[in-house]
Recover the amino acids of this structure.
């Protein structure tokens, strides 16, 4: 029982992180229909820059994390301003190729630093151990990640649902020309979406780093998990990203915990969630929460 | 063309002056060939004409929305309060106080009615959202009951109200309306135009309305222009246009001897006249 609970808790934590990173992806897709293949690299960048601020510059934890978020948001913003702005209105395949190119480029950049290889970890800033919850042990790192992802998710959804700027971003997603006619700067909205995506990715990266340490391939791998998550959730749905993130996180953990011992190769965590994904798409091709066009009858 | 005694200047100071503009799309397709018009402040000006005459292009040239369509003002100038504004991006134009309501309503379907309205306030610094929304609901009481409904599920008339309402929330000095009657039942068209007339009278918002439905547009307009194939062919105050035999014949569907003419007859006549 406590084994199941532990799997569930760590699955939910992992899933929330997926959800947060996927949210960044969804923002860009929603606003500009651009599929951002560089989300994993942004995540790695956030995680490693936090390490750099913490270990090399020896800044306090909170400050270092905030700086890492700000830095990655800035990178996202600049990527849009420098590379993608020129591609607005071009065929979607060119834009997709450009983001794949960006992903490789950022990959290469990271490999120029020592962070490209080997494993790193943040200096411990949390107390050892954790809390017991119905017989299951939850580490402080997991607890922190749980609270922080939830806080970020609430912050983002507040921003999009309530603030005027958030409403304006959604208006661009809905009808660009109409948004422009009301003075919304579409270029600024795109750049803002990329900045927000960078921020969300960095937040995810920092939390992964806190829970399980930093390793380039591992971090980028988490970035890749964004795709099944957003497809399951519906490409353009923010709540969908979160729900699907949790679903995939939990399924992964349950598969690894219960099925791996019976499979000689192990590794069911990489298969099982996708089986669920295919099943859902079978019945709901728009994903769980994807928008279907509104047609008046 | 016989001379009309009233000039736009007589109705108020000129807020917007379009001076001999030519517009080209994709560097090659010329749509406007020297269009000039004056919009007097505080009044309603109508720009009438058939499909494809270039009315929408004229509005887009003013509002800056030519840019996303790859159109360009290649000659002439557009002066707003004496200042040239052609070629500026739409968000700057909106900040200057010119807001266009697009043809076909174009509401944000997945946003609620109230969120649609809120987008209109984005360019402004000081916003008293609650009072301002109430002001819009005062003109469009029907929207008040629908405020939390998704705009995509509203009726055509309601969507037109949303489109005009959110434009008003940008506090325009000059409101550009593109075919507000499109696809609406006659009673609704009447209602919308009456509201536009009220907004003009009560808020002092200057209006430039593009319409194919000349009858309803001239019922509220103070001055009007008639456009055909990229040129202004006739202008004058409301009474002048309503009494002009050509306008009656082609745009109001009134036969020479009074009474209504069938659409078929008007069309045949119009085609003949164009050849001659």
């Amino acid at each position: 029982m406590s084994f199941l609970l532990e799997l569930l808790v760590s699955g939910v934590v992992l899933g929330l992180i997926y959800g947060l990173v996927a949210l960044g992806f969804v923002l860009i897709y929603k606003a500009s229909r651009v599929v951002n293949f560089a989300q994993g690299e942004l995540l790695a960048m956030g995680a490693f820059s936090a390490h750099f601020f913490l270990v090399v510059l020896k800044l306090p934890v909170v400050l270092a994390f905030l700086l890492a978020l700000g830095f990655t948001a800035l990178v996202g913003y600049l990527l849009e301003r420098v590379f993608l702005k020129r591609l607005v209105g071009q065929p979607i395949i060119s834009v997709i190729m450009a983001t794949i190119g960006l992903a490789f480029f950022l990959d290469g950049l990271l490999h120029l630093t020592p962070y490209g290889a080997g494993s790193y970890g943040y200096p411990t800033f949390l107390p050892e151990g954790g809390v017991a919850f119905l017989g299951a042990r939850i580490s402080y790192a997991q607890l922190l990640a749980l609270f922080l992802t939830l806080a970020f998710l609430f912050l983002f959804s507040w921003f999009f649902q309530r603030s005027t700027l958030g409403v304006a971003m959604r208006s661009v997603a809905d009808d660009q020309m109409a948004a422009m006619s009301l003075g919304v700067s579409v270029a600024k909205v795109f750049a803002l979406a990329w900045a927000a995506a960078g921020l969300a990715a960095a937040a995810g990266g920092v939390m992964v780093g806190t829970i399980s340490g930093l390793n380039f391939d591992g971090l980028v791998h988490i970035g890749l998990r964004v795709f099944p998550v957003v497809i399951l959730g519906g490409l353009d749905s923010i709540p969908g990203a979160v729900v699907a993130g949790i679903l995939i996180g939990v399924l992964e953990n349950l598969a690894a915990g219960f099925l791996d011992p019976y499979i000689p190769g192990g590794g069911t965590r990489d298969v099982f969630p996708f089986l669920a994904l295919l099943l859902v798409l079978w019945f709901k091709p728009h994903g769980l929460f994807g928008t279907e066009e509104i047609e008046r009858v | 063309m016989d001379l009309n005694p009233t000039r736009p200047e007589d109705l108020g100071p000129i807020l917007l002056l379009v001076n001999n503009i030519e517009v080209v799309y994709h560097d090659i397709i010329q749509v406007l060939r020297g269009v000039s018009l004056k919009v007097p402040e505080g009044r309603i000006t109508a720009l009438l004409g058939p499909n494809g005459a270039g009315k929408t292009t004229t509005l887009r040239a003013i509002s800056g929305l030519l840019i996303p369509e790859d159109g360009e003002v290649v000659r002439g100038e557009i002066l707003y309060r004496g200042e040239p504004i052609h070629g500026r991006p739409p968000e700057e134009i909106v900040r200057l106080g010119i807001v266009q309501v697009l043809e076909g309503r174009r509401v944000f379907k997945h946003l609620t009615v109230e969120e649609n309205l809120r987008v209109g306030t984005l360019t402004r610094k000081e916003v008293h959202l609650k009072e301002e929304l109430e002001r819009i609901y005062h003109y469009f009481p029907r929207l008040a009951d629908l405020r939390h409904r998704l705009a995509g599920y509203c009726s055509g008339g309601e969507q037109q109200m949303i489109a005009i309402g959110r434009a008003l929330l940008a506090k325009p000095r000059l409101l550009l309306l593109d075919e507000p009657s499109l696809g609406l039942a006659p009673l609704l068209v009447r209602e919308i135009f009456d509201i536009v007339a009220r907004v003009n009278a009560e808020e002092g918002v200057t209006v430039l309305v593009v319409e194919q439905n000349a009858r309803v547009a001239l019922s509220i307009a103070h001055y009007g222009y008639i456009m055909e194939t990229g040129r202004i062919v006739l202008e004058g105050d409301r009474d002048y246009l309503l009494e002009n035999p050509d306008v009656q014949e082609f745009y109001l569907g009134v036969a020479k001897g009074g009474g209504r003419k069938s659409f078929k007859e008007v069309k045949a006549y119009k085609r003949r006249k164009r050849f001659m």
In short: Chain B touches chain A at residues 63, 65, 68, 89-91, 93-95, 99-102, 106-111, 115-116, 118-123, 127, 150, 152-153, 155, 166-167, 170 (CB under 8 Å). Chain B has a mean pLDDT of 90. The two ends of chain B are 16 Å apart (CA to CA). Strands of chain B lie at 14-25, 29-40, 44-48, 71-80, 83-84, 98-101, 174-178, 206-211, 223-228, 231-237.
